[in-house]
Structures are given as structure tokens and as C-alpha cells.
Design a protein that fits this description.
heterodimer; A: 79 residues; mainly alpha; B: 234 residues; alpha/beta; 7-stranded parallel sheet; 45% helix; globular
Chain lengths: 79, 234
């Protein structure tokens, strides 16, 4: 289940952040490692919202810097 | 050029002239209208820009018929003139809702596909009175001034994706909106204009088309006056 979710999460990251799937690891930092700027992240979050049929309010995104943190947030909502 | 162009408020005046200008350039054009459906070689979609669901429905139709919007001209606007002490709050709020918040609604929607395309042009139709002020038009002037801060913020937000956002600030133009002022007021207006006359809608449409053209690729966050010199220095 979690594996399947992470695959879908990774697919969104690959298409919206233009990165190789192999770079989408839990430790990867969006800005430093995936070279994503603030607009990339907005588009990524919107893609996740539509992929998982969830809503992610702006304030819940505060402090999220890594793939692992973002995935935990999505996983909790996608249930 | 064959780009997909959407002009809001395209049933008459500056909006209609702009739609015809883009058609003449070979673009695929859609216009929105609120009351009177215009006829021409463009897609005419009903849309009240004060309603988000109307805006979404209009964009859905344009995208499915012509493709993603590459050039957005936010032109839909209204006036409800009156001196401040006689201006009802509803007259203030409704003008700002149509002119400023309506522009927010269409720009936000257009930005989605422009971001994906990594390019796009937005042209917002403001007015010389946004910077000059006009007795009896506090609501209209406030909404038109607001467009400038809005456009410049978008220019900063979207610039890294090759999306430009510019403002055109017309002076008095020969349209239904200005004719409503009455001949006397209009003549007085024309006297204030260094060029001594009011503009044709086509003269504004040409500048809008320029801002959407390859020649204007390096212009963003600009406010281009098309006012015969009326607002010089503002």
C-alpha cells in the first residue's frame, strides 16, 4: 500500500519537478537536491492534490523540506 | 501566429477590437461576454467574471475547443459612477469584484496552463484614471490602480517561467462605456488630452497585440499608457 502510494508520489515528482525517479528518495531535499523553486513546489503540491484527491492547506506545508516529510503528509491524508 | 487568445469582455469596445486584431494576426480567438453575445470568427463564451464557476466553465470550453490559453487579455470591466458621499458600498464592492477580483480569477486559471507550457502572455486592461484619479469614479479608479500592483506581483511570481504580465492604461476611448459619460463630459475630456481627441478602440487593441507579440518578449510588469498624453508623468 505504502509502496504503491510512494510510486504515485514519485510519478508526480518526476513530472512536475523534472527529476529522475532515482533522485526521489526520502532524504532528498526539494530545494538543494531536486533543484525545485517555490513555483515548482506549488505545482507539485497541486499535482499531488489531484492525484490523491486530497487538499493540502498552505500552513501544513510549512517546515517541509524533504521528500520524506512531504510523503508522510500525503500518506496521512490519502487514507 | 495561431496562438490561443482569450479576451474577457469581448462583446464590444476595446475587447471586441482586440479580438478582431488577434484574428487578423491569424490567432485562434475566444471572447467572453456577459450580456450581449458578439458574432465573429471567434468562440464567444458566456462568462460573468464575478463568478468563479463561470470562469472555470469558460476556460474548460476554450481549452477543449481551441487548446490551452497562451495569451490572456483581461478586459472585462464595469463602471458605477458616483461621488463618494453618494456611493453605496455595494457600488464600490461590485466594481472592484468585476474589475480587480475578476482579473484575479481569470489570471489564476490561465496561469495553470501557462506554467505547464513554460510560457504565456497576460495583458490587463487598466485605465489612466487608475493613476490620475477621477471625481465620481473612486471605485473604478481603485480597481484599475489595483490591477497594477496585481500585475507587477504576477510578473515577479511567473517571470521565471517566461510568462509576461503587463498593463495597458487607456485614456478616453470611443466605446459605450465612455459614451455613457455624455457628449459634454467627453468633449471636456478630449480637451485635456494633448492629442486633442479620444482614442479608437483599435488604437488600444494594437498595443495589446504588441504586448503579446514576440517583439515584447522582454517587457513585463510594465504599464503602457495609451492615452494621447493625458496621464504624462503618472
Amino acid at each position: 500500500m505504502s509502496q504503491d502510494l510512494f510510486e504515485r508520489f514519485t510519478k508526480c515528482a518526476v513530472s512536475m519537478l523534472s527529476v529522475d525517479a532515482s533522485k526521489v528518495t526520502p532524504e532528498a531535499r526539494f530545494k538543494e537536491d531536486l533543484d525545485a523553486d517555490s513555483l515548482d513546489l506549488v505545482e507539485f503540491v497541486m499535482e499531488l492534490e489531484s492525484e490523491f484527491g486530497i487538499e493540502v492547506p498552505e500552513q501544513e506545508l510549512e517546515g517541509i523540506t524533504t521528500v520524506g516529510q512531504a510523503f508522510d503528509l500525503i500518506k496521512a491524508k490519502a487514507k | 501566429m495561431s496562438r490561443v487568445v482569450l479576451v474577457t469582455g469581448g462583446s464590444r469596445g476595446i475587447g471586441l477590437a482586440t479580438a478582431l486584431k488577434f484574428l487578423a494576426l491569424g490567432d485562434k480567438v475566444a471572447v467572453t461576454y456577459n450580456t450581449n453575445k458578439p458574432s465573429g470568427d471567434f468562440l464567444a463564451v458566456h462568462c460573468d467574471v464575478t463568478k468563479q464557476e463561470d470562469v472555470d466553465r469558460a476556460f474548460d470550453l476554450v481549452e477543449s475547443t481551441l487548446g490551452p490559453v497562451e495569451v490572456l487579455v483581461s478586459n472585462a470591466g464595469i463602471t458605477k459612477d458616483g461621488l463618494l458621499l453618494r456611493m453605496k458600498e455595494s457600488d464600490f464592492v461590485s466594481v472592484v469584484d468585476a474589475n480587480l477580483t475578476g482579473t484575479y480569477r481569470v489570471c489564476k486559471r490561465a496561469a495553470q496552463s501557462m506554467l505547464r507550457a513554460r510560457k504565456g502572455r497576460m495583458v490587463l486592461v487598466s485605465s489612466v484614471v487608475g493613476l490620475l484619479g477621477q471625481a465620481g469614479q473612486a471605485n473604478y479608479a481603485a480597481s484599475k490602480a489595483g490591477l497594477i500592483g496585481f500585475a507587477r506581483s504576477l510578473a515577479r511570481e511567473l517571470g521565471s517561467r517566461s510568462i509576461t504580465v503587463n498593463v495597458v492604461a487607456p485614456g478616453p476611448v470611443d466605446t459605450d462605456m465612455t459614451r455613457a459619460l455624455g457628449d459634454e463630459k467627453l468633449a471636456a475630456f478630449a480637451d485635456l488630452v494633448p492629442l486633442g481627441r479620444i482614442a479608437t478602440p483599435e488604437e488600444v487593441a494594437g498595443v495589446i497585440a504588441f504586448l503579446a507579440s514576440p517583439d515584447a518578449a522582454y517587457i513585463t510588469g510594465a504599464v503602457i499608457p495609451v492615452d494621447g498624453g493625458l496621464g504624462m508623468g503618472h
